[in-house]
Amino acid sequence: MSNLAAPPAECQRCTQRGREYFVYHLEGRYDFDVDRARVFTSDGREAVELEEESTRLSLEGCTMDEAHIDHVDPTIPGLIAHVFHTTPEGEELAGHVLIDGNHRAARCLRDGLPFRAYLLTEDESRAILLRAPRPRRRESVYSQAEGQDGKPGED
Ligand SMILES: [Zn+2]
Hints:
Layout: H1 12-15, E1 21-25, E2 29-33, H2 34-41, E3 48-49, H3 52-58, E4 78-86, E5 92-100, H4 102-111, E6 116-119, H5 122-127, E7 129-131, H6 142-145
Helix pairs in contact: 3-4
């Protein structure tokens, strides 16, 4: 027993309780309400299987707790949200981020198992966003196309 990974009872990640959040950086910080995302995705929708390369990319920059990888159930799908950002030049950046299931994804990669995830819609992704970078003004871009009040549209 002594050379095995710490049992779940001694693993901080296994024993942590309370609401779960995920923080992501795309030209600024995003905080997601993972618990609310789980409510959305428990509506019977099907999880999609990620390509191995996508799974690998989704883990880039993630902080991994190696010991915890053995404690997770790789058959439980992860959660993927959309993220949006408008650059000062008015360029819209969009991406996907794995907000739940990083260790399950790592386990699947390591063990050659398929990794599946539930996709949140764009609306759901916005609804679970607790914090996002403040959009910066696009002085010249929206004055004509999006109305006389000079505010950007709800895009
Ligand atoms: Zn653990």
